[in-house]
Amino acid sequence: MSAPFSWIRPEPWGIHVVPADIWVDPSRAVPRALVTHGHADHARGGHGATIATPETLAIMQLRYNTSAGAAPAAYGESVSLGGGVTATFLPAGHVLGSAQILLEHAGERMIITGDYKRAPDPTCAPFAVTPCDIFITEATFGLPVFTHPPISDEISKLLKSLKDNPENCVLVGAYALGKAQRVIAELRAAGHHDTIWLHGAMEAMCRLYEEHGVALGDCRLVSDAPSKEAMRGSIVIAPPAALSDRWSRRLPDPITAMASGWMQVRGRARQRGVELPLVISDHADWNALTATILEVNPQETWITHGREEALLRWCQLNQRRARALALVGYEDEDD
Amino acid sequence: MEEFAALLDALVYTTSRNRKLALIASYLRAAPDPDRGWALAGLTGGLDFPAVKSSTIRNLMMERVDPVLWTLSRDFVGDTAETASLLWPAPEDAAPQDDLPLADVVARLASLTRASAPKELPLLFDRMDARGRYALIKLATGGMRVGVSARLAKTAFAQAFDVAVEEVEEYWHALAPPYTELFDWAAKGGPAPDLANVPRFRPFMLAHPLEDGEVDLADYAAEWKWDGIRVQLARTGGVTRVYSRSGDDISATFPELLGALPIDAVLDGELLVRGSAQGGEAGGAASFNALQQRLGRKTVSGKMLKDYPAFVRLYDVLLLDGTDWREHPWKLRRATLEGLMPRLPQTHFDLSALVEAEDFAQLAAIRDTARDEAIEGLMLKHRTSPYVAGRKVGHWFKWKRDPLLIDCVLMYAQRGSGKRSSFYSDYTFGCWDGDPDAGAELLPVGKAYSGFTDAELKMIDKFVRQNTLNRFGPVREVVRQLVFEVAFDSVHTSKRHKSGLAMRFPRIHRIRWDKPAHEADRIEGLRALVKD
User: Fold this and answer.
1) What pLDDT shows up at residue B390?
2) Considering all CA atoms of chain B, what is the largest pairwise distance in Å, rounded to the nearest integer?
3) Quick one: DSSP state of residue B115?
4) What angle do CA A90, A23, A262 make, to 5 degrees?
5) Residues B254 and B367 reside in one and the same domain
6) Which residue of B has its CA nearest to A258?
7) CA distances (Å), origin A191, targets A102, A183, B15
8) CATH number for the domain that contains residue B336
9) Do residues B368 and B267 share a domain?
10) In angstroms, rounded to a whole number, what is the distance separating the alpha carbons of residues A178 and A105?
11) Interface contact B421-A307, CB threshold 8 A
12) What is the radius of gyration, based on Cα positions, of chain A?
């Protein structure tokens, strides 16, 4: 009999499920891949076959135009991968279609969370706490300084700035997949029904969200605005890279905001020239990471991309077996 | 306190100078006395609470948070105050407490002792949120780093109450926080502060760098730009004060000067230490390295006074015998200064000599010798220029000698602070201690964190991350591969580096992505440039 969990091998470019010869979120093209969600550092094009949720596959097709070998797996549906391994996709609460992947082999259960959060999000299904032996967790915000406030606080801050500055517009930098749609949906939920102006890079993804039942209200493209004046007193949403780009010159006296978990650290906001930091994250903060480990209560926790050292230390202090995986290719995305 | 914390936070996220001015001005108009005076002092570094140091805060945290988690957090955030404000374990069921007026917070901080601080500070932390704690720690430990210079704060004050900034500046340094008389005058229409018998700071006249052009020596006089610190000596009613360029009172650091000025006057000059490094025996001044032994001390030992005797090399006269000379042309002030010299003790004063040249070309040749003389360069002053605050174009130019250049290899990179907290932006570089092809090693010779563009910073940051050999907290040791052309003003012997050398003002001049590391310079080449 082989050693426990010898069927899973973390390699620098992804997690290899050996008996099925399939990779989870590999950072290079492989014959067969399981993909947790559509963000570029997890979902790359060029795999021979890709198993993911239908939403993630739709996002991948939109972004990389790869539909070849797409094999959808709905939440809760178990897929046999071969070699005696089955995979079940479970909601991760990160973005539309995001999943944790439960792998089972010879009675051993392992969960790979991908990216996840525990805070409520009207644009995707909530994280499902599921028992397992080994829990492979992300650690993007794995430092105790990260305690993200409720999103309603941050949406109020945004609406207040909008109200206080009728002669400006508020330009919100938000990741084009997930963050932008969540901010819009939360603004609508807070009773803001004015036109929201979008950078061109947001359009297709917003449409995809609407097709999947996430209502975003009256959104229009900045390039379709009849005049600069039409956007005064409005919210404009653009990818973070566009904040300091020449593109923003077409806006009426923008106040630069950014919706990101990093905004909790002043230096990060200043570095990007952000005047209105909105601490809105699609990742679990420190309290959620640690609470989730306690809730899932695995025998062992493996920690990937992010601030592994601190979460590892926490596990140590709480007498939990843990190890850090050195995976490459995952970035501190513009969460 | 909440209003002050909100101001501080808003300033953090504001880069535009005008918006900063507007924020401070609107705070100053709205806040009550004496809170606004304390706020002003806090913003400009005018408060000192000796019982609270950065280490006090760190120790408080270490008792409450796992040291490893603290260190990892501090390294990531890049700021002790901010990290502590976020990690402070606030009592969960605490009843909301009233906001403390800033003046009360200041009074509490001032009453702390080393012994009482660890017990009293937590009581203050507990009643605030993270933003309040951040402001409190910044206030207590100094160094706001929100891009508010004393000059900006004075301008904001002038804007808030529609008064002249020059007047604000003159009164400001003669008064102590919370500047009650200053607010009475500006905000409440009271009489101007009576400063007739108080020595006070007058804003310095500053110079523009001479970029490429030439000046006509018929219009401009030349002087050496001595390598010390610019000071203003002000004596009024028999009391002498020494002010630094920023208007800080540094009298306590240089007590030997306080009794040296025999008449009421305000004089501008360079503070130096006796020696022969600058301009040889005739120059009579030691290198900046020697002066550095004297800087930043609150008390000075007799040995210090004897080993590093300070004196002032005079550049200009602002006030003398009751006459304000600032409106008068430079040549008249110069004649007045020359006439004054016999009345001053030679032990503590001399005159910055004029550098005579036939024409600009000859002056340029003389400037080229500045390196051998270990002097910073030349000053060019328009003969008719009045003494005016700040930098007015065309009056004074500084014409520094060209920097020295050397090729070094990047060895270690450290994450920056504040804006650069996610970038490896502080670089330690070295030179070879022999022939690199015969097994020589690199020895660190200096550290630099400027001279590159934001785009270059990103590229170096990427290089560091991809070529890491070892990690030591916020520091990464990198593969010896990347060559920096480093510019520096001078190099001195130093015990702090293994190489025995330390550079002055090193900055990254060029990044030599093209140059192989073994072609970088050797230690002996750098040592040959020492002029101590």
Assistant:
1) 83
2) 80
3) T
4) 65
5) yes
6) B13
7) 38, 13, 32
8) 3.30.470.30
9) yes
10) 32
11) no
12) 20
User: Which of A270, A237, A240 has the alpha carbon at shortest distance from A334?
Assistant: A240
pLDDT at B189: 92
Which of B68, B73, B77 is opposite residue A267, by nearest beta carbon? B77
Structure-token pair, residue B424: 């490896």
The full DSSP string for B171-239 is HHTTS-TT-HHHHHHHHH--PPP--TTS----PPB--EE--S----TTTEEEEEE-SSEEEEEEEETTE
Q: Number of H helices and number of E strands within chain A?
A: 7, 19
DSSP letter assigned to residue B291: H
Give which of A55, B453, A33, B437 is closest to A45, Cα–Cα: A33
The pLDDT tens digits of the residues spanning B453-508 come to 989 999 999 999 889 898 876 789 999 999 999 999 888 888 777 888 988 889 99
Fold of the domain spanning A151-278: Rossmann fold (3.40.50)
CA atoms lying within 13 Å on the CB side of residue B102: 31
Amino acid at residue number A176 = A
Q: What is the DSSP string of A111-143?
A: EE--S---S--TTSPPPPP---SEEEEEETT-S
Single out the residue of B502, B499, B505 nearest to residue B530, CA to CA: B502
Residue of B nearest to A312 (CA): B69
Alpha carbons A188 and A182: distance in angstroms, whole number: 10
A219 to chain B, any CB pair closer than 8 A? The answer is: no
To the nearest whole Å, the CA of A245 is away from the closest chain B CA by 14
Query: Pick from A145, A270, A273: which is nearest to B83 by CB?
Result: A145
Contact A222, A236 (CB under 8 A): yes
CA distances from B506 to A84, B226, B405, B460, B490 (A): 62, 19, 9, 17, 9
Whether ipTM tops 0.90, in short, is yes
Residue B138 tokens read as 């910044």
Q: Which residue has the tokens 């590159």?
A: B452
B421 in the same domain as B393: no
Residue B306 annotated among the catalytic residues of the structure:
no
Q: Which domain holds residue B501?
A: 404-527
Distance CA B408, CA B410 (A): 7
Domain with CATH 3.60.15.10 in chain A: 8-145+283-324
Q: Do the bridges between strand A196-198 and strand A235-238 make them parallel or antiparallel, or are there none, so unpaired?
A: parallel
User: Closest to A313 (Cβ–Cβ): which among B68, B79, B421?
Assistant: B68
Q: What is the DSSP string of A250-300?
A: GSSSEEEEEE-GGGGSHHHHHHTT-SEEE---SS--HHHHHHHHHHH--SE
pLDDT tens-place string over residues B442-467: 999 999 999 999 899 999 999 998 89
Q: Which two tokens stand for residue A86?
A: 């089955």
* Cβ separation A266–B86 shorter than 8 A: no
pTM: 0.75
What is the biggest distance separating any 2 CA atoms in chain A, rounded to whole angstroms?
72
Q: What are phi and psi of A144, to 5 degrees?
A: -65, -10
Calculate how close chain B gets to A144, using CA atoms only, in Å. 7
CATH superfamily for domain A8-145+283-324: Ribonuclease Z/Hydroxyacylglutathione hydrolase-like (3.60.15.10)
B409 and B293 in a common domain: no
Give the position of tokens 């599921």. A130
What is the token pair recorded at A43? 């979902």
pLDDT the model gives residue A245: 67
Taking an 8 Å cut-off on Cβ atoms, the answer to whether A268 and B420 are in contact is no
Same domain membership, residue B424 and residue B298: no
CA-angle at B482, arms to B476 and B483, nearest 5°: 125
